[in-house]
Automatic annotation (TrEMBL):
<dbReference type="Pfam" id="PF08402">
    <property type="entry name" value="TOBE_2"/>
</dbReference>
<keyword id="KW-1003">Cell membrane</keyword>
<keyword id="KW-1278">Translocase</keyword>
<dbReference type="InterPro" id="IPR050093">
    <property type="entry name" value="ABC_SmlMolc_Importer"/>
</dbReference>
<dbReference type="InterPro" id="IPR027417">
    <property type="entry name" value="P-loop_NTPase"/>
</dbReference>
<dbReference type="InterPro" id="IPR003439">
    <property type="entry name" value="ABC_transporter-like_ATP-bd"/>
</dbReference>
<keyword id="KW-0472">Membrane</keyword>
<dbReference type="InterPro" id="IPR003593">
    <property type="entry name" value="AAA+_ATPase"/>
</dbReference>
<comment type="function">
    <text>Part of the ABC transporter complex PotABCD involved in spermidine/putrescine import. Responsible for energy coupling to the transport system.</text>
</comment>
<keyword id="KW-0813">Transport</keyword>
<dbReference type="GO" id="GO:0005524">
    <property type="term" value="F:ATP binding"/>
</dbReference>
<dbReference type="InterPro" id="IPR013611">
    <property type="entry name" value="Transp-assoc_OB_typ2"/>
</dbReference>
<dbReference type="InterPro" id="IPR005893">
    <property type="entry name" value="PotA-like"/>
</dbReference>
<dbReference type="Pfam" id="PF00005">
    <property type="entry name" value="ABC_tran"/>
</dbReference>
<dbReference type="GO" id="GO:0016887">
    <property type="term" value="F:ATP hydrolysis activity"/>
</dbReference>
<dbReference type="GO" id="GO:0015594">
    <property type="term" value="F:ABC-type putrescine transporter activity"/>
</dbReference>
<feature type="domain" description="ABC transporter">
    <location>
        <begin position="6"/>
        <end position="237"/>
    </location>
</feature>
Amino acid sequence: MKQAIISFNNVMKSYDDDVPVLKNISFDIEEGKFYTLLGPSGCGKTTILRMIAGFSEPTKGDIYFEGKRINKVPANKRQVNTVFQDYALFPHMNVFDNIAFGLKMRHLPKEQIETKVKEALKMVRLDGYEKRGINEMSGGQKQRVAIARAIVNEPKILLLDEPLSALDHKLRTDMQYELRELQRRLGITFIFVTHDQEEALAMSDEIFVLNNGSIVQSGTPVDIYDEPINHYVADFIGESNIVDGTMIADELVEFVGHQFACVDGGMRPNEPVEVVLRPEDLTLTSVEAGKLKVKVDTQLFRGVHYEIICYDEAGNEWMIHSTHKAVPGQEYGLNFEPEDIHVMRFNESEEDFDARLESYED
Ligand SMILES: Nc1ncnc2c1ncn2[C@@H]1O[C@H](COP(=O)(O)OP(=O)(O)OP(=O)(O)O)[C@@H](O)[C@H]1O
């Protein structure tokens, strides 16, 4: 791996009451990638961003920028800029003055400021908007001004704290594409904070999933979706069916009273486990042709698919995504392939999980 641009080494943070809001956080951020900190409200995402920006110091542990310890380096001496959730634009200034603000504070020559502001506006596709008042801009345009104001300083890292949460669904999706594209064009490191798993999956090179002050799992969106480490991640990322089971032997798991071939292994014989099956991997067939018998309870039309809820004989609920309609009240067979079954151990650390996967997968 290249030298990390930012490293956290056993970082802990607590406020006055001593209850840690971050517990022993360690990670490396590589230059030029799109990272997302993902987790529910209060899990510590913003606290991590504030420490990278220099607005807050760790209680214990160290933070490094390109290998140098920066715990005590003030915010204005770091090559980091932040785009805040509410944009924090100056409402009484026009677009140009908002973007030029930091450059003026640094007493750059007038012509240089003008060139840089124009370039930044071009980057966010707002050329020609210099003279507009901030209050005459739409939500999406304000968002872009906030980004232009941050990138005009040519930071090595851009921090984005829930920057899309104030936008409506359509604009939010458009901005996801734009931000992803902008990051690729600029080639600078983006660290994006969100509690929206779809947004994280769509935009990131790497995701850190947080819960209660700890990083529970890190990896590419596909890794995290396909191989969630535990119930929390499987439930938080995407839709999941999670049932209790027993790992009989390598590649053989039992749930709902039946044994099924699977592709997982490296557990103790007869170890209690949890089993995840994604709704899009399940199909309904005739009772005779199915691996489990289920009865359809309800179905909702979701546009791209039907969301079908059914129950097996043991009373477990199963969600299925299908382009075919089912009949509520009718019995069906439920089908899935061995590779669609993902088996999780209870309380497995990310380190042990990665080592097991590596030793087990070819
Ligand atoms: N200045 C502070 N003093 C005391 N506690 C704080 C302070 N700032 C944050 N906290 C606490 O730290 C925890 C983590 O907060 P943080 O803002 O990092 O979470 P978050 O994941 O960004 O949440 P959200 O998505 O709601 O913004 C919360 O329990 C919060 O109450």
